[in-house]
Amino acid sequence: MLENNKLPVEVQKADMAMADMTAGGVLVRDQRKRLMLVQIKGQVVMQRIRVTTMKRESEEIPQMTTFGTQVWYPGAEATALTLSQRSAPGFDKVTLTSKEVVCQVDFPRYVLNNQVELGGFKNTLITYLGLHTKRDFENLIINGDTTSTNTLLAMFDGMIAGATSNTYAAGAAALSTDVLDATTLTMPEEFDDDPDFAFFTNKVARSAYRKELGARSTPLGDANQTGSKLVEYDDIPVTKVPLFPNDLGGGSNETALMYLNPKRFVFAYHENMEMNSEYNIRERTWTVVLTARIAQGYEYEPAVVKTTGILGT
């Protein structure tokens, strides 16, 4: 391979742009932040969950869970509460352990020429990687399943597979008021007052519910027929998510409905993200490799309801 000082002028310029973009291979804070923002923007679920960074490969999220069902009791002068009446907080923790992911992008030399001349290659490349990364990460967040045959999805359980404490089986039914009502009733009562609850499902399921509302001879029905009203149940938004599955169940035609505060799901990046590059003179292409460590999981899974058996095609 030729040394850099013997490469064509445009390749030397690209090499200088690459060198400017990488500081010892590690993305600086502003570049990492820009990459993360590009990935989050425009995604339905990723922009609603809690996205954070990790300083270590594994981090614990401590939690104070509950003081029990009752903390106040009648008092008597000079008498202490009995042992059974005394309260103590419960403590728990969630451990996020990061795993390495790698992204490789190959650029033909001619694609870079204008970008190098204009000095905007750094931002263009980060945007390009972000656009190609965000679908993968959104897919992992929703459909991650450690039993999956897809190697990326098998890294972690996602929003659907990770919800196991509170489930409701709709029985191969279209999404309807009855299904949504049963889903909300499955949520433990202590979480009912969370103002940030939302429903997530796929396009077909939400469309079936919207048609049910539109069939009503009321202003609400008219609004849902014209699409002028946000689709809701009991003032809780019902959001369609493009990457929600439509091939679940015995007939491979079902989807799921998630009922939760999306901030209870955490997606974390390790702070050290590396970007490295090399030029292949024989193929006249640049190869850019981005390496990161990520982790995900529920911050408090008992406050989540999953409804299965909803027709999704």
Written overview of the protein:
With 313 residues, the chain is α+β, with helices and mostly antiparallel strands. The chain folds into 2 domains: 4-59 and 95-154 and 267-298, no CATH class; 159-265 and 300-311, hypothetical protein PF0899 fold. Helices cover 28% and strands 28% of the residues. It has helices spanning 9-21, 29-40, 109-118, 121-143, 177-186, 203-214, 219-226; strands at residues 50-54, 58-64, 91-97, 99-108, 167-173, 198-201, 232-233, 236-240, 254-260, 265-270, 274-280, 285-298, 305-311. The strands form 3 sheets. A 6-stranded mixed sheet has the order 5-13-9-6-8-7, covered by helices on one side. Strands 1, 4, 10, 11 and 12 form a 5-stranded mixed sheet that branches. Strands 2-3 form a two-stranded antiparallel sheet. Helix 1 crosses helix 3, helix 2 crosses helix 4 (121-143) and helix 6 (203-214) runs antiparallel to helix 7. The chain is globular, with a radius of gyration of 25 Å.
Task: Describe the structure concisely for a colleague.
With 313 residues, the chain is of the alpha+beta class. The protein has helices at residues 9-21, 29-40, 109-118, 121-143, 177-186, 203-214, 219-226; strands at 50-54, 58-64, 91-97, 99-108, 167-173, 198-201, 232-233, 236-240, 254-260, 265-270, 274-280, 285-298, 305-311. The chain starts with 8 loop residues before the first helix and ends with a strand.
